[in-house]
Fold this protein.
Amino acid sequence: MKIKINELKSLIINVLKENYSQEEAEKITEVFLYAELTGKDTQGILKLFGSEPAQNIKPKYPPKIIKETELSVVIDGGGAAGPLVAQVATEKVIEIAKTKMFGITATNNTFSSVGAISFYARKIAQNNLIGIIAASSPRGVLHHGGIDPVYGTNPIAFGFPTMKHPIVFDMATSAITWYGLVRAKALGQNIPENVAVDHQGNSTRDPDIAMKGAILPFDNSYKGTGLGMIVELLAGALTGASYVFDEGDWGTTYIAISPELLIGTEEFKKNSSDLILKVKQSKVKEGQKIKIPGYDKEIEMARLIKSGEIEVEDKILDSLRAL
Amino acid sequence: MKIKINELKSLIINVLKENYSQEEAEKITEVFLYAELTGKDTQGILKLFGSEPAQNIKPKYPPKIIKETELSVVIDGGGAAGPLVAQVATEKVIEIAKTKMFGITATNNTFSSVGAISFYARKIAQNNLIGIIAASSPRGVLHHGGIDPVYGTNPIAFGFPTMKHPIVFDMATSAITWYGLVRAKALGQNIPENVAVDHQGNSTRDPDIAMKGAILPFDNSYKGTGLGMIVELLAGALTGASYVFDEGDWGTTYIAISPELLIGTEEFKKNSSDLILKVKQSKVKEGQKIKIPGYDKEIEMARLIKSGEIEVEDKILDSLRAL
């Protein structure tokens, strides 16, 4: 069913106001709407349902800065939903890097994931900065060679300004997301081959067994494991959040770098746009397309925003209206 | 054949003195020796042979700083061999980050690869800093969905201090290195399946056909392509070096971040050591082992250095002595 984007926005904000102020609810809603507009729908409205609905996460206190230097802040999330704390940390890292040319912010004491991590990388890039974001989560992924889950699904995101749209790339360092398991279990479906093992390390396609076993690194090699470990170090060990944990607090690190430190902002944007052009000139296999991450999605997003309407599954919309 | 490490060192330095000063030759040799000591032997003595022997790369002028801010420098490599310029850039980024808590340096106008990229990440980590390094190279790797080579094999490296040895992780973003193709061709061997395609995008195991076609991203998916693109942006577009190129200059970017900006250095080192401990407690499959990148190699390296001797293939040693 089509719904006016503004109406959808109001619906989400109203639900979130259960435990959040209008301003806070708006910040969280912005992230969920972005997920819907870019087709990352598991990071959108669905966050209001399931076992940890965002509106039920009652913060103990608003996010507060607990350490500050010229180039950095550490933010105690007060137990709030991830997207609220992430918005605060992103605004702060942009503010610092705009004057100092570099900024780094970290969050701990946050409950739940930050949602669509590319949202924040895009925001940094829209401010003519290069963004790097690493986010940790409870353990579900094994270390290559091991059997037990040790790392979270640990996404990482990068944002780069260009002359036009930002390039925004994000990926989980796991072969399947935790939500991928939850969803398959709920629908009674198998998970793909070679994405998870049981608690003895044997390959499984049963999501329930995988949840009690472990997810593989995305490429089932030492490379994916190395990247998963790096996210655990940057987002967990460096932030004061938990690491290699079941129950604990999720950490995230935000880095913003101005191209002024090196080649210069205008020059970099010229180069990054030119790089896209060169890559897009590549021959493709029949039926294939060169996709520039984030960059190519902006066109569809702009079209949706201009139309003022978005398609949402009837069942989900009904459930949202009933909340 | 076993050879005294000091003798091997002198041999390499003497060869390099063809086009480099004693001090420069020592800096380059340090990188090659590290490669030999850590078993990355394609990045060691072999760099003195083949189509681009390091000692034959005659710099036009010594590396020089062409842009400088409080937090950064851009270095024009003067057309020197990669490892020399990389050493200068690494020393500089450490110097900056030790006083400013963050530093970023970039190099352009460099001829040849920086060699074992983990060497520099390790050096940064040994100075209680977190290191991130991205290095670009001539195009050989396709963008997922495309056929033509656009990115280099584009390695990326990370270094983290711990209470003991540094964690050092590095990886090529390609499924096989360029040297892997060169070696297979020289030995008349096939390359593994699913690492390269011919110029029409069909899978090939012939290294010669692969060289005229393209290498795949390491996981043959959009994730590996995204990471390859990010290295091309950071090391090429941001540094003033070439990008998406055949002939041109290789660029590298070095980032150093002090944990003092966030949780604090001592606290971070405690956490990173604890994280390793937790990961190592994981059950493993029979015959498998949990390997912590870089960290576990330090023990073997220390043993070799203590013994004062290293094993080098007879043929290679003879060739080295004949240079």
